C-alpha cells in the first residue's frame, strides 16, 4: 500500500504516543481486497503537544518531511528490549540516556535500575526548608534507596510523606540525633520498606531505653532484611523489638559487632541471635555474621537448628577452633542448599572444611575464601566438583600453588565463571595464566593484585583471550612494563605461526570499565599515549606510577572520555597542565585523588573550579605548593561533596 502523504515528524518525544501508535493506521485494521480501490488517507493535522510531565523545557522543533507519521529507530523498541539494553549501561550512562526522550526516561524508572542508585545524605539537616531536602521536594522523580550519615533531624519533615511510599531501603549511619520516636515516625511513612540498616548506631541504642516489648510499632510487613553494622551497644531487648517489627524478615545481618563488650553480655546476645533464628527458621534465607565476635560453640548451636534452609551465609572467625570436628563443618553438612558462601577471614578454615564444601554444596555459585591462610593444594583441588561456580575468591591464601589451582579450575570447562580473584598468591607462576585464559573465556572481573605471576608475557594472554573483561586489577604487579601493555618491543611474541608474529595491546579490551595499575612503576607515557583508548573506562588507578607525566596524561584524557574516577597519587611528575587537561577533557570526572604531588600549584585548583563541573570528591593532601585556602576555593564547585 503506497503511503505518500505529507506529515510532520517530531524529532523530540512530544510528537509520539498521543493517539493511535504507529500513525494513521489502527492495529486491528484488516487487509482490504486487492481489487478494491485504495482510499487516500486524510492528512494528519499538525498539533503541537505541550506535555510537561517530562521535566525538560527545551524547545520543540519540527521538520517537514514526506512520509507517514510512524515511530522509527530506538523509539519504536518494545520496553522489554529497551530494558535489556539499559542493563548493559552503568548508572551514569543510563542517566544520560534518560534525557533522550520520554520513553527512555520512563525506562529509567524501572525498579531494577532505581535500586542500583543510592542517594547519600551526609552531614545535612533533614528539614523541609533547607537544602538538599528542599530541592528534593521539588523533584520530578522518585528513588528507592537512601543512606543518612551524621544527619540532623529537626522536627516534622514532609520529605517522608512525599517519597515514603517509594522507598525500599534505608540506612542510618552514625545519626546521633536519631531517637526511637523519630525512627518510629519515619518507618510509619515507609509502607513498602524492604531493608532497614542501622550502622554505627551506639548512640541510638543508648538513648533507646527502656524497651517496651509489649507495644511494637510500627509493624513493617514488607520488611525482608534487618542489618546491624559496627554497633556494640544494642541489648537483647533491642534485638527482639527490631525483629518483631518485621514479621516477614528473610535476611538477618549482624556484622562487625560485639567487639567492645564483656564476655557475659556477648554470650547473652549470641544466645538471643540463635533463639531468633530458631523462631524465624521457616522464613530465614540469608544470614551475615561476618567480622562479628563469636566462638565455635555458637557455630555448633547454629548447625543444630533443624528445618532451616539457607541460601546465603557470610561468616568470619578469629577465635581458636578445635582441630577435630569444628562447628563450621557441621553447618556445611546441614545447609546443603547454599548458593552464596562467604568465609572471608575465616582463619581456622582447613582443607577438610573446603572438601566438605565441595562435596555438600553442589548448588554453590559464589565462594569467597579471602584470607583463609590454612588452605593448601590438598583442599583447593576439591573445588573442581563445583560445576556451577560463577565467583571464586582465593586471595591471600598464600599456600596455594599451580598444582592445586590447575586441578580445581583449569582442568574443567567453566563457561559460567565470570569473576576470579587471585591477589597476593606467591605460589602461582606465569605458566598458569595461559591455562586460565583458555579455560575461563567469559571472565568479566579478574584480580591479580600483588601476584608475581603477572609479567609482560602473561598479561598479553589476558588481552588475547579475555575480550569480555570489564574490571582488571593489577596493583603491585611490578613486572609489568610498557612492552606488555602495548605489545611493542616484546622479546618474544605471544602468538607465532611460521614467520608471522602477533602481539596485543590493552586497548583491545574494549569493554574495560575499571583498570588498577597502582605500583606498576615501569609504566610510562608510552603506554598512555599508544594503548589507552577506552570508550567505556570509568575508573583508573595510576598511583605510584612514577614515570608518567604531561604527554601521557593529556593523551589519556583525550582518548578515555568516560573516566569518572582517577587516582594519581605519588606520580611526582604530574603538574598543573596535567590537571588542566583532565579537568577540560573529562566532562564526567567525579572523583580525583592527587596526593603528594609536589609540582601542583594554585593553577590546578583554579582549573578544577573552572572546568570540573561534575566533580564530587577531591583529595589534594601533601601538595606543598597548594595554598591553604584551596578548600575554600574548591567550594565554588557546586557538585563538590568532599574535599581533603
TrEMBL record:
InterPro entries: F-box-like_dom_sf, F-box_dom, FBXL15_LRR, Leu-rich_rpt_Cys-con_subtyp, LRR_dom_sf. Keywords: Ubl conjugation pathway. SUPFAM superfamilies: F-box domain, RNI-like. Residues 24-37 have a biased composition (Acidic residues). Residues 71-117 form the F-box domain. Residues 23-46 are annotated as: Disordered. PROSITE patterns: FBOX. One of its GO terms (biological process) is SCF-dependent proteasomal ubiquitin-dependent protein catabolic process. One of its GO terms (cellular component) is SCF ubiquitin ligase complex. It comes from the Eukaryota. Coiled coil: none annotated. This is F-box domain-containing protein. It comes from Anopheles gambiae (African malaria mosquito).
Amino acid at each position: 500500500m503506497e503511503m505518500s502523504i505529507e506529515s510532520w515528524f517530531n524529532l523530540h518525544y512530544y510528537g509520539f504516543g498521543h493517539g493511535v501508535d504507529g500513525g494513521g493506521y489502527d492495529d486491528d485494521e484488516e487487509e482490504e481486497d486487492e481489487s478494491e480501490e485504495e482510499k487516500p488517507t486524510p492528512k494528519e493535522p499538525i498539533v503541537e503537544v505541550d506535555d510537561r510531565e517530562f521535566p525538560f523545557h527545551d524547545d520543540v522543533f519540527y521538520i517537514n518531511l514526506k512520509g507517514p507519521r510512524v515511530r522509527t529507530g530506538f523509539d519504536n523498541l518494545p520496553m522489554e528490549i529497551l530494558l535489556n539494553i539499559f542493563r548493559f549501561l552503568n548508572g551514569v550512562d543510563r542517566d544520560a540516556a534518560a534525557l533522550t526522550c520520554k520513553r527512555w526516561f520512563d525506562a529509567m524508572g524501572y525498579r531494577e535500575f532505581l535500586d542500583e542508585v543510592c542517594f547519600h545524605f551526609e552531614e545535612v539537616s533533614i528539614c523541609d526548608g533547607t537544602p538538599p531536602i528542599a530541592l528534593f521536594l521539588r523533584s520530578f522523580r522518585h528513588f528507592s534507596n537512601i543512606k543518612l550519615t551524621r544527619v540532623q533531624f529537626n522536627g516534622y519533615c514532609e520529605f517522608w510523606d512525599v517519597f515514603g511510599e517509594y522507598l525500599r531501603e534505608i540506612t542510618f549511619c552514625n545519626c546521633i540525633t536519631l531517637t526511637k520516636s523519630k525512627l518510629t515516625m519515619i518507618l510509619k511513612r515507609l509502607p513498602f520498606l524492604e531493608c532497614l540498616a542501622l550502622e554505627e548506631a551506639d548512640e541510638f541504642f543508648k538513648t533507646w531505653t527502656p524497651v517496651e516489648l509489649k507495644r511494637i510499632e510500627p509493624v513493617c510487613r514488607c520488611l525482608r532484611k534487618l542489618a546491624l553494622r559496627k554497633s556494640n551497644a544494642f541489648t537483647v531487648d533491642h534485638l527482639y523489638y527490631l525483629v518483631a517489627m518485621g514479621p516477614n524478615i528473610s535476611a538477618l545481618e549482624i556484622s562487625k559487632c560485639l567487639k567492645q563488650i564483656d564476655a557475659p553480655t556477648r554470650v547473652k546476645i549470641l544466645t538471643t541471635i540463635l533463639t531468633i533464628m530458631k523462631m524465624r527458621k521457616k522464613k530465614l534465607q540469608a544470614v551475615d555474621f561476618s567480622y562479628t565476635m563469636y566462638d565455635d560453640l555458637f557455630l555448633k548451636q547454629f548447625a543444630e537448628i533443624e528445618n532451616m534452609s539457607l541460601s546465603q551465609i557470610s561468616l568470619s572467625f578469629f577465635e581458636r577452633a578445635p582441630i577435630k570436628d569444628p562447628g563450621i563443618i557441621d553447618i556445611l553438612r546441614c545447609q546443603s542448599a547454599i548458593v552464596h558462601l562467604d568465609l572471608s577471614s575465616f582463619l581456622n578454615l582447613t582443607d577438610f572444611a573446603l572438601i566438605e564444601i565441595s562435596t555438600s554444596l553442589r548448588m554453590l555459585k559464589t565462594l569467597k575464601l579471602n584470607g583463609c591462610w590454612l588452605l593448601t593444594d590438598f583442599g583447593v583441588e576439591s573445588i573442581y566438583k563445583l560445576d556451577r561456580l560463577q565467583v571464586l575468591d582465593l586471595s591471600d591464601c598464600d599456600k596455594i600453588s599451580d598444582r592445586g589451582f590447575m586441578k580445581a579450575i583449569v582442568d574443567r570447562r567453566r563457561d559460567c565463571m565470570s569473576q576470579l580473584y587471585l591477589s597476593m598468591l606467591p605460589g602461582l607462576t606465569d605458566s598458569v595464566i595461559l591455562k586460565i585464559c583458555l579455560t575461563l573465556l567469559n571472565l568479566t572481573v579478574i584480580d591479580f593484585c600483588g601476584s608475581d605471576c603477572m609479567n609482560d608475557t602473561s598479561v598479553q594472554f589476558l588481552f588475547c583471550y579475555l575480550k569480555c573483561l570489564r574490571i582488571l586489577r593489577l596493583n603491585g604487579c611490578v613486572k609489568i612494563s610498557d612492552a606488555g601493555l602495548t605489545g611493542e618491543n616484546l622479546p618474544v611474541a605471544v602468538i607465532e605461526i611460521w614467520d608471522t608474529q602477533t602481539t596485543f595491546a590493552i586497548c583491545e579490551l574494549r569493554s574495560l570499565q575499571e583498570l588498577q595499575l597502582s605500583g606498576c612503576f615501569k609504566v610510562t607515557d608510552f603506554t598512555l599515549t599508544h594503548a589507552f583508548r577506552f570508550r567505556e573506562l570509568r575508573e583508573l588507578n595510576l598511583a605510584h606510577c612514577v614515570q608518567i607525566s604531561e604527554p601521557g596524561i593529556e593523551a589519556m584524557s583525550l582518548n578515555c572520555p568516560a573516566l569518572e574516577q582517577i587516582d594519581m597519587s605519588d606520580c611526582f611528575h604530574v603538574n598543573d597542565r596535567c590537571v588542566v587537561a583532565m579537568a577540560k577533557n573529562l566532562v564526567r570526572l567525579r572523583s580525583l585523588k592527587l596526593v603528594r604531588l609536589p609540582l601542583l600549584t594554585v593553577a590546578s585548583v583554579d582549573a578544577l573550579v573552572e572546568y570540573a563541573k561534575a566533580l564530587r570528591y577531591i583529595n589534594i593532601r601533601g601538595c606543598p605548593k597548594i595554598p591553604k585556602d584551596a578548600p575554600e576555593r574548591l567550594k565554588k564547585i557546586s557538585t563538590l561533596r568532599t574535599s581533603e
